[in-house]
Every structure is written in structure tokens, then in C-alpha cells.
Amino acid sequence: MLCIILLLFTFLIVGSSKLCPHQCSCYDASELVDCRSRGFTHIPHSIPHGTWLLDLSGNKLSELRSTSFTGIWVLRVLLLSQSNMQVVHSKALSSLTFLEKLDLAYNELRVLPPDFCQGLTALKDLKLSHNALERLESHSLEDLESLERLDLSHNHIQVIEVGAFRGLTMLRHLNLAWNQMTVLQGGLLTMQQSLGVLLLNHNNISKIETDALAPLQTLTILNLEANQLRSLKFKTFLNLQTPSTHLQMSENPWTCDCELHRVFTKILHVRHLHVDDYMNITCHSPLLLAGASLGLMHSQLCIAETATVLVITATVMVTVVAALVMAERKRKNQQMNLEKQGNDPMPWESRK
Question: Where do transmembrane segments lie in this chain (predicted)?
Fold first, then answer.
């Protein structure tokens, strides 16, 4: 009798682990569960315990609760894109300790909870693109010690607290394009020695702090296109000690002067730095050079500036010489008048 009960109990457990949620499709012994675009407003029940891929994209979930994934311990891929997600509650993902890929793209997330990444120590690929995030707090991502790819593009991020990427020591690909960042501050990427690709294009970056890029020892691609850069400091890129780094910096409002020419000339002469779009970099100011290619006329910038300096210098010298001549002439006239008065035998009063 006891054996029969044990057999029934085992059958129930195994059977429940193979159940497929209503309206979903399950494959490979219920290890792949497809619940795409089924109109779900919450995470469906009866997801098999052995599921390693769960696709819930295209639904109307709006939120992830703290108990949403209880019991799905071996899940490795979770797809939640285009699900009208607005809120991820505290510890909503903490049970997914084996999760390697998480897709939350194309949702409506404005903030991440402080413990967003708690338990996600195996996560390698995180997509948060096309949301409404405005800032990244210092603790939201700190536990993602295995993360290799992070996509935060197409958000409204203005502020990233120093320390936000502190725990991401394995990060190789970071996409922050199409946000509203204004400064790339030093200390932000201190722990990203393994970072190979950094995409910062289409932000509002007008300043790169001198030591911001220094820790990036393996960076191969740095995209700074379409920002608000007007000038550069050569030391910023000299600190970038990598085997080979390709830079993209067109579509910025560059102020084309002799200093900018000197900086780019130095960068082009550094063996491991390559400005891929140098011939597409155009001047925004001065107005006389607006739209002109920096690569085609860079040598003329210093010539024009030197000529301007020479003209100004010559004008100043002519003015100074003219003033000296006038002063000397005045001094001589005064001296002659004094000598003439000294040689006159009759005082003016006696002549009357």
C-alpha cells in the first residue's frame, strides 16, 4: 500500500511538472514554453518546474510581482518584451538564480527597484532598451557579477550614479545610445576593464572628463556620434591604453579652430587609436566654416588662425609705433619751444 501511495505521489509531481499553461504552447517535454501575445495580464500559473525558456513577450502584464516566478528554479531565458510592463516589484526576480538572459525591452519602466538584480548572479544578457528610465541608482545593478551584455539604449537616462556599474566586472558590451546623458564622468566605468564595446551615440554629451576612459583596457569600439561635443582634450584619449580602439565622433557641433586641429592630429598619430569617420566630421562653428569637413581642411585651420594672429599682431605693432612716433614728435616740439623761449632776450612783458 505504501509503495502505491509513493508511486501515485511521484506521478503527481512528475505530471504537474509537465503541465502546460492554458493558451500556451510547450515543446521539448515542456522545457520551452511559448506564451507570446496571448493577452495575459499576469504571469500564468502551472508553468512546468523544469522550464528553461519562457516567452511572455507581447502580453499586457503591467507589473512583475514578488511571487511571479516562484517554483521555476531552472529558468535560463525569460522574454518579457512588449508587455506593457510599468513596475517591477521588489524581489520579483530573486528566485531566478540560474537565469542567463532577461529581455525587458519595449516596455514602460521608469525606475528599477534597488534590489532589481538580487539573486541574478548567473545573468549574462540584460535588455532594458526602449523603456522610460531616467536614472540609474548605484545599487540597482550591483549584483550582476556575470553580466556580459547590457542594453540601456532608447531610454531617457540623464543621471547614472557613480557606482551603478561597480559590480559588473565581466561586462563586455554596454549600449547607452539614444539617452539624455550630458557628461561622461570619471569613476563611472572604473571596474569595466573587460569592456570591449561602449555605445554613447545620440546623447547630449558635451564633456568627457579626463579620466573617464582610463580604466577601459580592452575597449575596441567607442561611439560618440551625434552628441554635443564642441572640443576635446587629447589627454582624455591618451589615457585610453588599449591594443586598438576605433572611434566614431561625427555629427557633433565641433568648433573648428587650431586647437581642435592639434587634438585630432595627435589622436591620428597614436598607433592604437583609429577615427573611423574622420572625413565625415564637419564644422559647426565659426559660421564661415559651418558644414566644412574637418578632414579636408584641417591644415587650413591653423594657417587661417596664424594669419589672423599675424594681422592682429601687425595692427597692434603699427598702432604702438604710431603712438611712439607721435609721442617723440610731441616731445621734440616741446623741447624746441623751450629752447626758443630760452634764447629770447626780451621777456614777453617787456615787449609790451
Answer: 307-327
State the pLDDT at residue 11. Answer: 34
Beta bridge partners of 293: 282
Half-sphere exposure (Cβ direction) of 101: Cα atoms closer than 13 Å: 11
User: 202 is written with which cell numbers?
Assistant: 545620440
CA distance 221 to 208: 16
Whole-angstrom distance, CA of residue 230 vs CA of residue 40: 49
CA dihedral 94, 148, 216, 221 (to 10 degrees): -140
Query: Quick one: residue 30, left, alpha or beta (phi over 0 = left, psi -120 to 50 = alpha)?
Result: left
How far apart CA 104 and CA 56 sit, in angstroms, is: 10
Higher pLDDT, 151 or 22: 151
Residue 74 in contact with residue 49, Cβ under 8 Å? yes
| Residue tagged 538564480 (cell numbers) | 97
Cα–Cα distance for residue pair 347/315, rounded to 1 Å: 47
Secondary structure class of 284 (helix, strand, coil): strand
Of 76, 75, 24, 63, the residue nearest 46 (C-alpha): 24
The closest alpha carbon to 217, from 176, 162, 155, 169, belongs to: 169
The whole-model pTM stands at 0.82
Beta bridge partners of 274: 246
Of how many residues is the chain composed?
A: 352
Distance CA 56, CA 69 (A): 12
